[in-house]
Write a structure and sequence with these properties.
- There is one protein chain.
- With 205 residues, the chain is an alpha+beta fold.
- The strands form 2 sheets. The chain has a 6-stranded antiparallel β-sheet with strand order 1-2-3-10-5-8.
- A hairpin with a 2-residue loop joins β6 and β7.
- It is globular and about 45 Å long.
- It starts with a helix and ends in a 12-residue tail after the last strand.
Length: 205
């Protein structure tokens, strides 16, 4: 796994430098500080939404090679968690996420979180925001995305940047959405749903 993770980080840096360097300088700096030799053992676990995972992995765009092959290997070594923020009060669920880098990941970091995101078909992930800055790279599937009042479509290879405290939402239709996500900045900060900004919704470990 050490070799696979090292290759993954190298290829992710190449992808970001070659295509998105202007908005990814902070991310690239944090990745460079990671110690890919310091990998911890965790008990891999899949959540209910992972019934959609194999299909999402098989549909990763070949334009993202070799990241696609590396993610397939890494995804089997992670702890997948179901939606756990304010459910069901604010959001009925329908997505799962796993952390590769971070406090719960294979490589521990307090400055950056990198992981995978899986949203099932026909799910409305409503407007929400968080203090952390966030970057999404769409790996497979399509969706409608909303940032503040702007609505647009995303496809494999799309990149989406959320500034700190910026409202955003994701709507899937017939396809499962699969993406890589990255948090920087205040990664331990607040998270809330639109209209309930006084209610912090921390992760449930």
């Amino acid at each position: 796994m050490k070799i696979i993770l090292s290759k993954f980080l190298t290829e992710l840096q190449k992808l970001l430098r070659n295509n998105y360097k202007d908005i990814c300088e902070k991310i690239l700096l944090e990745i460079e500080q990671l110690d890919s030799d310091c990998i911890r053992e965790i008990d891999a676990l899949k959540s209910p939404s992972c019934t959609y995972l194999d299909g999402a992995l098989n549909n990763i765009s070949k334009n993202l090679s070799p990241v696609d092959v590396l993610i397939k290997s890494i995804s089997e070594k992670l702890v997948w968690r179901e939606a756990s923020r304010g459910v069901p009060d604010f959001f009925k669920g329908g997505y799962a996420f796993a952390e590769i880098i971070g406090e719960q990941g294979l490589i521990v970091s307090e400055n950056i979180r990198i992981g995978l995101f899986l949203q099932k078909p026909y799910v409305n992930y409503p407007l929400h925001a968080h203090e952390a800055e966030e970057l999404y790279i769409i790996l497979s599937g399509t969706a409608r995305w909303k940032i503040d009042k702007k609505m647009f479509s995303v496809i494999p290879g799309s990149i989406i940047k959320h500034q700190s405290c910026q409202d955003h939402a994701t709507f899937t239709e017939e396809e499962t959405l699969f993406a890589l996500w990255i948090w920087t900045g205040k990664i331990k900060g607040r998270y809330w749903f639109r209209g309930y900004s006084e209610d912090d919704c921390p992760l449930e470990n």
